[in-house]
Amino acid sequence: MRIGIFGGDTAGRTIDDVVADARAAETDGFASYALPQIFALDAMGVLSVVGREVPRVTLATGVVPTYGRHPLTMAQQALTVQAASGGRFVLGIGLSHQMVIENMFGLSFEKPVRHMREYLSVLMPLLHEGKASFKGETISTDATIGVEPRIPCPVLVAALGAQMLKLAGTLTDGTVTWMTGPATLASHTVPIIAAAAKEAGRPAPQILASLPICVTNDVAAARERAARDFQVYGFLPSYRAMLDREGAEGPADVAIVGDEAAVEKHVRALVDAGVTEYVASIFGSREERAQTRALLKSML
Predict the structure, then answer these.
(1) What value does the mean pLDDT of the chain take?
(2) Cβ proximity of 146 and 163 under 8 Å
(3) 130 and 217 both lie in a single domain
(4) Within 10 A of 158 (CB to CB), how many other CB atoms are there?
(5) CA 26, 31, 32: angle at the middle one, nearest 5?
(6) 33, 25 in Cβ contact below 8 A?
(7) Are residues 279 and 227 in the same domain?
(8) pLDDT digits (tens, 9 = 90+) for 252-267
């Protein structure tokens, strides 16, 4: 199992800060460096710069919302990052959440699975063939793009529910998850997407799982901090469904927390759940963060 670093929110950080963070991840030997698309720097724009400055580590988005970016634009941006990085980019995309899309973007969140199916029907041909001709209920395209060299990047869909997992397995290279515990990964996520990929004649899917992680001598305090820092994810419906499936009261219950032995055991258990890459979202005090990173380095 590969281990990567989740770069986190870019609010209050400069492009130079992100480049330095990605360079440190590469120097430490981590397999990948991922950025979210939230409400600060544009993730793919920054990763284009990172790709020119940091030569080896895999770069990923975790994740870019599909609403608000036509798949033609998404394909152009993804291929640009691919060109800038020499083919080291993984495009993670997702629906985001109803409250974000409707309240902030002012767009309809009706029938999200239909939206993603139509989106991928345009995005995937553009990435792989440089052209797409599709007419759907919400997205229609007849276009070509001339980005050279055109190096198709892996596409991972943030899929949590069964319908999205089947769609991701059928049409894309895999999935990226957040706040999804090991029991749910093993019994729900991996079997559904793997079966869909097999039925579609596609290779075994990539399963990138991200969970908060903290090596600490004070487990209770760390879980209290996780409950506070990640509390919003306990209220967003898609993540709430995964927490309920895991039998978790909240995000703190799926965070990987404990001493070095306990944390290593939990991370290695993700392999048994079918995870192909763990993207570490390190939290805690400065000392705890340093201890956590050192442990993860020792596991590479």
Answers:
(1) 97
(2) no
(3) no
(4) 23
(5) 80
(6) yes
(7) yes
(8) 999 999 999 999 999 9
Residue 149 has pLDDT above 90, yes or no: no
Burial of 37 (0-12, 13-18, 19+ CB in 10 A): buried
Count of domains observed in the chain: 2
List, in order, residues 6 or more apart from 275 with CB less than 8 Å away: 1, 185, 190, 207, 208, 209
- Taken in order 184, 190, 191, 197, is the CA torsion positive or negative? positive
Asked if residues 65 and 34 have their Cβ atoms less than 8 Å apart, the reply is: no
Q: Helix (H, G, I), strand (E, B), or coil: what is residue 126?
A: helix
pLDDT over 90 (residue 9): yes
Entry pTM = 0.97
pLDDT at 137 over 90: yes
The answer on 9 and 113 residing in a single domain is yes
| CA dist., res. 172 & res. 93, Å (int) | 11
For the record, the structure tokens of 214 come out as 């903290």
Quote the tokens at residue 20. 């330095």
pLDDT > 70 in the chain, percent: 100
